[in-house]
Amino acid sequence: MPRRPRVSEVLIPFERGNGVPLRIQLQRALRTAIQAGRLSAGARLPSSRVFAEQLGLSRGVVVDLYEQLAAEGYLISRRGSATHVANRATSNLPGTPESEALATPRYDFRPGRPDHSLFPRRAWLTCLRRVFASAPAAALDYPDARGAHLALVAIAEYLNRSRGTAARVDRTLLCAGFAQGMRLVCEVFKAMGVRRIAVEDPGHAFESTEVRASGLELVPVPVDDRGICVDCLERLKVGAVYVTPAHQYPTGVVLSADRRAALLAWAAKRSAWIVEDDYDGEYRYDREPIGALQGLSPERVIYIGSASKTLAPALRMGWVLSPELLIHHLSQAKLDADRGSAGIDQLTLAEFIDRGYLDRHLRRTRLIYRRRRAQLANALGLYLPGFPIGGVAAGLHLTLDLPEGTDETAVIVEASRRRIHVHGMRAYEARKGSGKPTLLIGYCCLPEAEIQDGAKALAAAIHAVRRRAGR
Question: pTM of whole model > 0.70?
Fold first, then answer.
């Protein structure tokens, strides 16, 4: 049974001595609050006694108010029971959108989403309790814009040992996920005179609101099976480049060793910046993860990571490893944006890392995601033989090439009609439809018992589209 929200206080404006009876003023004000949606359907109102005390009026006035609006159908009031806003009070008002529950997907193959059911709630709660028990009162003050010192230390040490970075505490900044980190970097670029940024094509930048809304001109650079084509950068006048070298998004390829060296050489020669998005670098299933570019050139590479793929997007925790030249500007931009991220959450993350919970969580989820990826690949091979699977065994998704001439958009629409959520490559291209039709298929959100049936259902959707096209 859905929980009815309880309203402990209701702001009802009225004015004594203005010539309009109080009961009329109150009726109008409460009726308007319900019509406007400020009081939602099903909300439980204060008792007549409590409401009268809040308003400084006699209880009889409030009883009359409730009875009048109940008679009009705005409230439901029964003897011995609380008074609620009627469920139909706002349903037929002009301009009020109908509330529609979003269809829950039967099979969720969307990429980039971890299995939220695996979040280590007990460990996180243990760390949160420890923080509240031991943190000094000063920890509840406005936070440092760069982040709580203990959290900066924990993040820097963790990244240095697990991702091969050269992080320094005094050049690390905590932010609200990748989105804010990228926005801050773009703001600093613009302030320093950077106007154009090279981005991978296909790439996350063309789907990312933060990158597209930054005001920087996005200059696409093609990606092949060895990552971004660094040779193309030589012909471009750009002040920075945005890359996903450990596991290119969305193609899933890894930036080759020779191109990593060439990219760093290009940045040094041009005095340009490299923005490294290490969105899922911890997940590699067939060999050791590729180390971060930042560890090779910490004064040219701006590293952005987050807890969204490893723990949960709802935590809204991210970090930026900055060159010395930029850290002051980034810190000021963060201060201007929100005066600093939640300090208690940062300290909880530090405790979580220091006590080894993050390492244990990653070991566990690597095993689970590796099994799910293998199971999905086997199922796709069974139901879609001859459809190539792309991307290295890493991250949270793989790619599936569709036969030439297949309408990628039609496949996604047909899959959605069958309550299957999946993404296509087109959304990540600078020139939509310029590449071959490809699906991005995430494998983390489906339990292993459902992966084979999900692959079979997706195959049926693809075959249906191809049959309608006469293929």
Answer: yes
